[in-house]
Batch of 4 targets.
Target 1
Amino acid sequence: MSKDNNQDFEIRLLSAVRKTLISVAKDTMTKPGLRHPLTEGTQKVITDCLDIVVSRQTAIEKETSTHTNMKPVFTDEETVQSFSIDDLKKTLIKKTLFHFLGTGFFIKQRQYKNIQSLIS
C-alpha cells in the first residue's frame, strides 16, 4: 500500500472506532439514579480510547492542513454572539427594500441611490 492508501485506511479506521465507541456510550446511557450497565473501569477505558482516537484524527488533520480548530457547542452552555449595529441597519434596510420591490412598490432613481448609499 502507498502512503496515501495507508492514511486513508487509518482515517476510515479511526472514524469507525470513534463512531462505535460513541454508539456504545449512547446505547448504554441510563437515567439518573439507575445503575449503569458498564463498570466505571470500562467507562474510563472507552473515554481513554475516544481521547486517543480524536487526538490521532486531529494530528492527521494538522499534517494534511485540514484541521479547522472547531470546538463543540454544548446545549447547556450560554453563547454570546456579537454583531455590528451598522451591519444590522444595512441588513434591515436591504430586507425592507427587497420587500417593497417584491410587492411591486416602485421608487424613483434618486431615492434608490440614497438607499444604496445607506447600504454600502
Target 2
Amino acid sequence: MREKPSKENPAGGFKAVKAIGWFVEEFNCTQVSINFVDATKTSVITVYNFLKEAARSLGFEVTGSELIGLIPELQLLIAANQNPLSQGLNKIEQLNLGAEFLGLNAFELFDVNKRVKELQIKAASVNRS
C-alpha cells in the first residue's frame, strides 16, 4: 500500500496513505490501520476496495471498518456513489449509505452527525450562535 515502489509492489501504492497491518490472535483476524494524510489524493473507498480485493484473493473477507476521528463528507459521498441506489437520496441518507458501504456500522452504530467533519463544524457554529 505504500506510495513508494517496493519489491512487493514495483508500481507503488496509494498517495498520502500510511498503513500497517497485523494479526490479532484473540480475534483470529488481521487488522489494518490506515492514516489518510491527505484524503484528496487517495479516496477512502479506493483503499477500502483494494483491501477487500486483496483479502478476497487470499481467501478472506473484510468484515468491517472503524473510524478514529472525523471523516470528510466527500469521502462518504464518493463511497455512496458506488451504489446506484444513492441517486435521489438526500445528503444525510447518502452519507449513511456511504458509511454502510465502507462497513462503518459493523462494530458500532456510525452516527454521521457526530463523525462527519463538516456536520461537526456546522453543529459547533450553531452552538456558538
Target 3
Amino acid sequence: MTKAEGMIHHPWAKGRIRMIQPTTDELVALTMVMTLLIVAWKKSLLDHSGLIAALIVGLLVSFLGHWTWLAILVFFLIIGSISTSWRYEEKQRLHLEEENEGMRGWRNVVANGGVASMIAIMNYSFCRYWWNRDEWNC
C-alpha cells in the first residue's frame, strides 16, 4: 500500500481510493452524538426508540448543519429532563407525571429535533450558502 497526495493505492483495488480525513468539526460532532447516546442510555433519558431517533437527528443536525446546532438540542434535552424529574413525586400524587417515568421516546426527539433536522438538510442541499454568503461552501 503506497501513499501519495492524500490517496492510498491498494494492491487489490483497480484504482486509487481517497483517504477519508474527517475535519475537527466532524470529529467533535461524532463525539457529541456518541456521548449524548451513552449518557441518555445510562441516565434513562431516552427509551430505545428515542435513542435511535436521537442518533438519526444528531447525525443529521451535526453533519449537515454544524455541531453547535446539536449542542442547542442537547441543552434542551438536559433542561427538559431536569424539569420532568423535578418534584416528580408531587406530580405523581396529582396524576400529572409523564409516562415511562419521564423517559422520552422517538416522538419527543422528532418533535424537538425535526425542524432542526429539516433546516440542516436544507442547509446542506443549498451548499451552506444561506449561512455564509461570501462564498459557496459546496
Target 4
Amino acid sequence: MSLVFQPVCASTSPQNLGQLTGPKSPTLNVFLRRILSRYMAVAIRLSRQGSKKRPFYRVVAAEKSAPRDGRFIEQIGIYDPRAKMLRLDQGRYDHWVKCGAKPTATVASLARRMRREADALPEQASQAAGA
C-alpha cells in the first residue's frame, strides 16, 4: 500500500481526500475528521443539563446538525440561569468564532454581557481605590 502525502492547506477539499490517504489507512477516520471539520457548520450554543425545573447549561461548540443535548466538539463554558452565573473560557470562545463558528443569539448576548462586566470591574476597583 502506498500513501501519497501532501501538505494539508485551505485548498484541500473533500473531493481529493483519496489522494491524501490510502484506502485502508488506520488513521483515515482521524484524518477525515480533521479535514472535514473545516467544512462542517459549527455553532456555539447552549446544551441543557440538570433535572426537571433546575436547569443549567453547558456552552458548547457543536455541529449544527447535532441534537441540542447530543454530541459536541468542545465544552467552553457553563451557564446557570438560576444563580445568574456564567463561566466562559473566553480564549476558546474567540478561537471558535475566529474559525467560523456562529454563536446563537443567546450565547452572543451572554458573551457580550460577560465582557462588559469584565471591563467594568477594573474601573470600579480604580474608583474605589481613589475614593
